[in-house]
Design goal:
Blueprint lengths: L10 E2 L4 E7 L2 E6 L1 H7 L2 E5 L6 E2 L4 E7 L3 E5 L4 E6 L2 H4 L3 H4 L8 E5 L11 H8 L1
Antiparallel strand pairs: 1-2, 2-3, 3-9, 4-6, 5-8, 6-7, 8-9
């Protein structure tokens, strides 16, 4: 697997989500290349709403593909401060650009250091086998 599949500067969860520190205590969340590949062609995404408060492990949305519907779980606690509205019209961006245009939502972290508790790229790759 290449670095393109799993960027070095991100943190990861065992549930195949990625988190990018945006600065000022805000983190951007999406799903990994592994997750989008396992899902198949994404046809619809339901995201949390701006202003929602989420706790770690909360189901906060879902991704629907040609194969299945999967819940999105919050990797971090905080308040949703932005969502990728572009996914309404083009959910396939999750497949074509999972770390760029396919991002899902931004969260203002309850604990700005919480991202450090997530997996780094080596630990995430190790759990993939």
């Amino acid at each position: 697997m290449s670095d393109l599949d799993y960027p070095q500067d991100l943190r990861y969860t065992a549930e195949h989500e990625w988190v990018r520190d945006q600065g000022d205590g805000v983190a951007r969340v999406g799903i990994t290349a592994f997750a989008q590949d396992a899902l198949g062609d994404v046809v619809y995404v339901s995201l949390p709403s701006v202003g929602d408060t989420i706790a770690v492990g909360d189901a906060c949305g879902e991704v629907e593909s040609t194969k299945s519907v999967s819940d999105l779980y919050a990797p971090l606690a905080g308040e949703v401060v932005g969502v990728n509205e572009g996914l309404d019209a083009a959910p396939e961006q999750i497949n074509t650009d999972p770390y760029g245009e396919g991002w899902m939502y931004d969260v203002k972290l309850a604990d700005p250091d919480a991202t450090q508790e997530l997996l780094d790229v080596e630990a995430y790759r190790a759990q993939l086998g």
